Amino acid sequence: MEVRGAEPGKVSHSWRYPRPRGGARVARIAMDSAERRASFPHGFAVVDVETTGLRWKTDRVVEVAVVRTDAEGRVLGELSTLVNPERNPGATHIHGLGAEDLAGAPRFSEVLAELVHYLEGAVLVGHNVKFDLAFLAEELGRLGLVLPDAPRLCTRELAMRVLPGLGEYRLSSCCKALGVDGGHEHRALDDARAAAGVFAGLNKTGFWRTSYERELAIAAGVAWPVIEGPSRIAARGEAQASAEPSPLGLMAASLPEGTSNGSVEGYFSVLDEILEDRRVTEEKADLARRHVEAAGLLRGDIVAAHRAYLTGVARAALAGDLGGGLGASDLARVARLLGLPADSADQALVAARSGAAAPSPGSTRPLRPETSICFSGDGEPSKAALEARAVAAGLRVQGSVTKKLDVLVIDDPHSLTAKSQKARAYGIRVLTVPVFLALARLSDKQ
């Protein structure tokens, strides 16, 4: 893909996009889109995508947003949806989306009809718009389609012309210079809104251009495909909000009410085993149920044990001083897996800070010296930092997953990397990063 002869702030029509790929199956398409365009007057479509990485040929879109405006820049509508990339989500520490968030999200083909509705008839605008449109073009190419050659404008290139002394032209820098609310970086809708604000602010200066009549006229004549059939849209947070109840929570709710005189120490060992990869399957919940029934434990015992275990997780997070929200997100995840209310994570932190008695999660399944370990993912802490921590704990770091590997550490419980899939197929022990860090600290004390 390339742009030839494009000057900063000017529109180029010489983009090359992938040709349709054979064998792709999509809904029937009609190229006459005049009827659909009637719902939006001619104007601009400010686009932003969040992706698994920076390579448009191999990486995938995980979130897309469009802010549709009229020719004067007034906002007419907004579209924002997660997209299931059908692979690992990539740099979760940047866009904040994990595999769990995207597992139930629509595929690109399922959002395409609504996306086209917001793009057609418009001049396409974005901050480094080449990046965003390259990814959209590739996603369309996977479906046997070609992104129409609509006019496009780059707010970054326009800012370089209008604000020559700014020096640094990140979206956040342009927002600051123009007094635009940048929202949360690397959230598609916030970034699209910010780019729309920058575009409007740059045009108000009158330094470069205030009218795009030619581009608007060209955009009005561009034919876009009409994708028949319903769209499925899922905004951030909807996947978690609609998540199925935790199997552990359902198990606890099904127990007889009351408390017993039985010991829950053995149950903590069971929780260590089934929670260390931060995924609870029906099979794991059944393992917990069999232990509970054999021990004669009741609902009150298990709910109290879950709260105590969560306090232990909170204490481990505080002891590790986990940054970047890693400890908080892990605590919230464990609370959900245990079937506890959303405010239980905050309550566990309060209890942990007060010194309340709690088990040490993972203490029944320590990492022994010379354990072979491998790391998968590109989150934070970095893989290099995690490997250094493993060496300091006396573990043997491997670069790949083999049948002889003892432990794989993943940065997301629902990781779809080749390493994680191979490890689960081989029955290799899998830990998440917070669990590994907690176990490494326990190893230091041995």
Explain this structure to me?
The chain has 446 residues and is α/β, with parallel strands linked by helices. The protein has three domains: 29-240, Ribonuclease H-like superfamily/Ribonuclease H (Nucleotidyltransferase, domain 5, 2-Layer Sandwich); 244-353, no CATH class; 372-445, BRCT domain (Rossmann fold). It has helices at 34-37, 92-95, 99-102, 108-119, 129-142, 155-162, 171-178, 188-204, 213-220, 238-241, 247-253, 265-275, 282-295, 299-320, 326-337, 344-353, 383-392, 418-426, 433-445, and strands at 29-30, 43-51, 61-70, 75-82, 122-126, 152-154, 226-227, 372-376, 396-397, 407-410, 429-432. The strands form three sheets. A five-stranded mixed beta sheet has the order 4-3-2-5-6. Strands 9-8-10-11 form a four-stranded parallel beta sheet, sandwiched between helices. Strands 1-7 form a two-stranded antiparallel sheet. The protein is elongated. The model is unreliable at 1-38 (pLDDT under 50). Residues 43-208 form the Exonuclease domain. InterPro entries: BRCT_dom_sf, DnaQ, Ribonucl_H, RNaseH-like_sf, RNaseH_sf. One of its GO terms (cellular component) is cytosol. Keywords: Exonuclease, Hydrolase, Nuclease. GO terms for molecular function: 3'-5' exonuclease activity; DNA binding; DNA-directed DNA polymerase activity.
